[in-house]
Amino acid sequence: MDSILICFFFVLLTPREIDTRSSKRISIQDDGTLEITAVRASDVADYTCSVFSPGGNETRSARLSVIELPYAPVNVKAVRLDTRSQRAVNVSWTPGFDGNSPVIKFIVQKREVGDLGPIADPLPTWVTALSNVSAEGPRWVLLTALKAAAAYQFRVSAVNSVGEGSASKPSNTVALPQEPPSGPPLGFVGSARSQSEIITQWQPPQEELRNGQILGYVIRYRLYGYDTSPWTYQNITNEGSTIHVSRAARSTVNPSMTNFRAAQSTSSRGPLYRQSKHDQL
């Protein structure tokens, strides 16, 4: 008594008979088992095997799902929040295919870019900003650990039970505005040059505290010991300056930086350097 085994697979509800001669990856074993090796995404389908014999017919179906890495998210967008209280950028995205395994979390990365594109660096320039964004939450995050006067791009990747998938394409570039320096000038020194002059010198603040391009400085000074006297101000554009004093006396010189904001005519001063007491002229 002979039996006939016929196997079909269904893709989008269209049945097609399996031809084991068309692929070395697909075979039907002697016991009727359908075997597919080196499974790939194109093999995902509903499979049905039917046996026909004089003693009766039998049909069994199974769904083949290939679990793989999730696809990269799409539509990654970055928008700067117009707030003075913090440097904030909202990054949003649309999840891609989950690889037939629920996405567990998302990873958000950032990189700093220059006027002509990403900053050249022999090492990877992408830095992880958030490594555990819940997949059950909203599809956006608010990033605040950013530098002033810098431009950024962002990208997002998804993680499922298989691992981390490919990262998305970089977002649009977002530029943060300049801010007043958050640190004082360094190494401020001064000495009497003559009976009417004091020469002063200093260095710019630490680079990470400049918050933009330093366009100038403001030095203020007054006679030493005259604490109630008004300060005299002098605007300068370099780290060395000569102050002309109208009378021979001790003086206290206290400079602060001035950092002009882009497209604005008003200045924003950073913190003052500590007072410096100089010798009597």
TrEMBL record:
<dbReference type="InterPro" id="IPR013783">
    <property type="entry name" value="Ig-like_fold"/>
</dbReference>
<feature type="signal peptide">
    <location>
        <begin position="1"/>
        <end position="20"/>
    </location>
</feature>
<dbReference type="InterPro" id="IPR050964">
    <property type="entry name" value="Striated_Muscle_Regulatory"/>
</dbReference>
<dbReference type="GO" id="GO:0045202">
    <property type="term" value="C:synapse"/>
</dbReference>
<keyword id="KW-0677">Repeat</keyword>
<feature type="domain" description="Fibronectin type-III">
    <location>
        <begin position="72"/>
        <end position="179"/>
    </location>
</feature>
<dbReference type="GO" id="GO:0007156">
    <property type="term" value="P:homophilic cell adhesion via plasma membrane adhesion molecules"/>
</dbReference>
<dbReference type="Pfam" id="PF00041">
    <property type="entry name" value="fn3"/>
</dbReference>
<dbReference type="InterPro" id="IPR036116">
    <property type="entry name" value="FN3_sf"/>
</dbReference>
<dbReference type="InterPro" id="IPR036179">
    <property type="entry name" value="Ig-like_dom_sf"/>
</dbReference>
<dbReference type="InterPro" id="IPR003961">
    <property type="entry name" value="FN3_dom"/>
</dbReference>
<protein>
    <recommendedName>
        <fullName>Fibronectin type-III domain-containing protein</fullName>
    </recommendedName>
</protein>
<keyword id="KW-0732">Signal</keyword>
<feature type="region of interest" description="Disordered">
    <location>
        <begin position="255"/>
        <end position="281"/>
    </location>
</feature>
<dbReference type="GO" id="GO:0007416">
    <property type="term" value="P:synapse assembly"/>
</dbReference>
<feature type="compositionally biased region" description="Polar residues">
    <location>
        <begin position="255"/>
        <end position="269"/>
    </location>
</feature>
